[in-house]
Amino acid sequence: MHYREVRTKREFAARMETGADWREEIETLAAEEEIDAGFFYALGAVQDAELWFYDQRDKEYETVQFEEPLEVAACVGNVAWLDAERFAHTHAVLSRPSGQALAGHLHAGTVFAGECYMREFEGEFVREPDETTDLDLWL
Amino acid sequence: MHYREVRTKREFAARMETGADWREEIETLAAEEEIDAGFFYALGAVQDAELWFYDQRDKEYETVQFEEPLEVAACVGNVAWLDAERFAHTHAVLSRPSGQALAGHLHAGTVFAGECYMREFEGEFVREPDETTDLDLWL
Amino acid sequence: MHYREVRTKREFAARMETGADWREEIETLAAEEEIDAGFFYALGAVQDAELWFYDQRDKEYETVQFEEPLEVAACVGNVAWLDAERFAHTHAVLSRPSGQALAGHLHAGTVFAGECYMREFEGEFVREPDETTDLDLWL
């Protein structure tokens, strides 16, 4: 377990804009407020979604596209620097009218409505290549 | 992205009462402690659940009822004023013994056991009708 | 609703070690930092997972084992004392490459990658047997 104590600098409550991209909205908040490290959670609904699944053996992302309205039952993630940009690592659980749940790494999704709570920490998270997983990880 | 900086006033840890309603328990905490704005997350189990799905085209909620014990794998939401009452907007991911996940807007569910962490912010969230989505949104 | 106001003592951001156990990693943080009460949420991926489902009638846990790589779309839980050990009560939503979601009480899972945010509260949570549910509950 790699960890460090963090201190909260500021907190934000946000409402995402209908028609915008879910992840980009979070990154907009991070960029405008110059958040260099943070954790967030959110809920709402999207008009479509692109989920990514990381193939742990081939070390590549596979994508799945859902062209349908979905609830965002839960969304958790964090903000860190990745390749000189603020990146919102975003996982989400989505659902269909039947209650059927879909989930994964949320690459993109058109916002219908979204509510987000973000904590900003002092210092910064910086993602760097990790040899074992071939992912970009912080700490 | 619409957002504002918030400041935490108080924090609460809560255990829901077996047999009570999941969302009403959260609203009871909000009412008793006069929480006018907050975010929470929770986990536990319910004896049944009613999920709502918002039809983004018809602008109406459809409901699905589950008359069976379900784990609450994740629950996130917030507290705001809606029509002169404190409303806990509550999304949840539920699961069956097989591990199958169900998710959505949790309108109601009979608590088996539940653990919740709530943050109260200064000021208040007030939900008002939004023309684009026909939902009641804050900010 | 049983609740109490809590005060945050410290906060931690953590990255789990590839190959370690998901829940044990959280308990390692709790043990090393002597966290007696806390709430956390996390995201990432596991190489396998064991979910438990509590049979509300028979008052026993059933287990389901998944021997496959899964995304951890959302994970929420808390740290409390249980039988003289720090226990991380951990629920999680997992997903397959198709986006199919699985969820429940995460007993174990081999970490592929994991990111966790933990808040430590003053005082302690102590789990004690609850007659109604036959579970060990705090507060």
Compose a concise summary of this entry.
The structure is a homotrimer of 139-residue chains. Chain A is mainly beta and 139 residues long.
Question: Any key phrases for this structure?
Answer:
homotrimer; 8% helix; 60s Ribosomal Protein L30, Chain: A; globular; mainly beta; 1 helix; two-stranded antiparallel ribbon; 139 residues
Number of strands of chain A: 9
Query: Mind telling me which CATH architecture of chain A this is?
Result: 2-Layer Sandwich
Task: Give the fraction of residues assigned to helices of chain A.
Answer: under 10%
N-to-C SSE series of chain A? EEHEEEEEEE
Rg from Cα of chain A: 15 Å
Please tell me the total number of domains of chain A: 1
- Average residue-wise pLDDT of chain A: 97
Q: Report the principal-axis shape of chain A.
A: globular
CATH homology group of chain A: Hypothetical protein, similar to alpha- acetolactate decarboxylase, domain 2
The parts of chain A where pLDDT drops under 50 for at least 5 residues are none
Strand content range of chain A: over 45%
Largest interface in this structure: A-B, 42 and 45 residues
Which structural class fits the helix and strand makeup of chain A? Answer: mainly beta
Provide the CATH top-level class of chain A: Alpha Beta
Number of DSSP helical runs of chain A: 1
Organism (chains A, B, C): Halalkalicoccus paucihalophilus
Domain PPC (chains A, B, C): 6-139
InterPro entries (chains A, B, C): DNA_bp_PD1, PPC_dom
Protein name (chains A, B, C): PPC domain-containing protein
